[in-house]
Design brief:
The chain is an alpha+beta fold. The chain has 7 helices and 3 strands. Strands 2-1-3 form a 3-stranded antiparallel β-sheet, with helices on both faces.
Length: 161
């Protein structure tokens, strides 16, 4: 889409004429009958309805991701447990946790939470520590496509030693 079309869309959404052959008088008449205004309101509502569930699911911090992972484990324990086994089999088959040598980049325990979308793709990575291992595993796991989870977003919690 050309940049000028974005301007036209933005102006159309704002309710201002943008040089499409309507002078201010004709534009006022069209607007007073509700046509573009009603369509604009419907379009804006549709955009918010589509974007809101996605925005509401993404965590903003490790603590938020951790609470979602724990809630998922408690409310959907069977599905979470079954998918964890499928996830581990895929991870082990591809040796993802060992592939980049992340285990040797720091000492101690590290808790990681992966947000997995409906296609199985890791779309977010959260950890309780910021060190070489966490940075390494973030690069390893982000954008990897695992088998599809039973629901999305799926919060996969890993505790590495």
């Amino acid at each position: 889409m050309a940049p000028h079309k974005f301007t036209h869309i933005a102006l159309w959404l704002s309710g201002k004429p943008f040089g499409c052959g309507l002078d201010n008088k004709a534009y006022t008449v069209v607007r007073s009958h509700g046509g573009p205004t009603v369509i604009r309101k419907i379009l804006l509502a549709a955009v918010f309805l589509i974007a809101l569930p996605t925005a509401a699911q993404t965590a903003k911090s490790f603590e938020q991701a951790n609470s979602r992972a724990e809630a998922q484990r408690q409310t959907r324990s069977a599905a979470t447990s079954n998918y964890a086994e499928t996830w581990a089999a895929f991870n082990n088959q591809h040796r993802l946790d060992e592939r980049d040598g992340c285990y040797y980049m720091a000492e101690g325990e590290l808790t990681q939470i992966l947000e997995i979308d409906e296609s199985g793709k890791v779309v977010s990575y959260f950890t309780d520590k910021d060190n070489g291992r966490s940075k390494c595993w973030a690069q390893t796991y982000l954008d990897v496509v695992f088998p599809k989870p039973p629901f999305a977003p799926y919060w996969h919690k890993l505790v590495m030693h």
